[in-house]
Amino acid sequence: MSVSDTLTNCSVLITGGTGSFGVKFIADLLKNHNPSRVVVFSRDELKQSEMMARAPFKDNRKLRFFIGDVRDRERLIEAMRDIDIVIHA
User: What string of DSSP letters covers the chain?
Assistant: First the structure.
């Protein structure tokens, strides 16, 4: 099974999704794979807002943005609801 097969039709949570690696990874994920949903988890509201306004993220129906910190166990558990794969960026 390839990486593409693994990510196809999966819900993916990216912690640190607004960081440099997270942004590049999500752009590649959306361009080259077919996830059913991508949840961008980060504690930086400004970076999430800026990311939402840029291509290829703008108006992308597969993207969801979630404010939180990985040190907040309850918030992380909430973000992981119905998630198939977690990428800790």
Answer: --HHHHHTT-EEEEETTTSHHHHHHHHHHHHHS--SEEEEEES-HHHHHHHHTSTTTTT-TTEEEEE--TT-HHHHHHHTTT-SEEEE-
By DSSP bridging, strand 63-67 and strand 85-88 are unpaired
Distances (CA, A) of 34 to 6, 20, 77, 81: 10, 21, 24, 20
pLDDT tens figures, 5-43: 789 999 999 999 999 999 999 999 999 999 999 999 999
Q: Quick one: tokens of 83? A: 């998630």
Query: Of 70, 49, 64, nearest to 12 (Cα)?
Result: 64
The answer, yes or no, to whether residue 88 has pLDDT greater than 70, is yes
Please tell me the distance from the alpha carbon of residue 72 to that of residue 56, in angstroms, as a whole number.
Answer: 29
